[in-house]
Amino acid sequence: MTRVLVVDDDAGIRNIVAELLEDEGYTVDTAGDGAQALQRAP
Fold this sequence. Notes:
Radius of gyration: 10 Å
Order of helices and strands: EHEH
Number of strands: 2
Distance between the termini: 15 Å
Strand content: 15-25%
């Protein structure tokens, strides 16, 4: 299973992209900015 981190400051865009990726079978994490992304990255 492939995990994807979606980072965007626009929550609407972030959620749409995450939903589309999940529909394609990806595991998705989201972050609203770079600091959050760094916390969620392995």
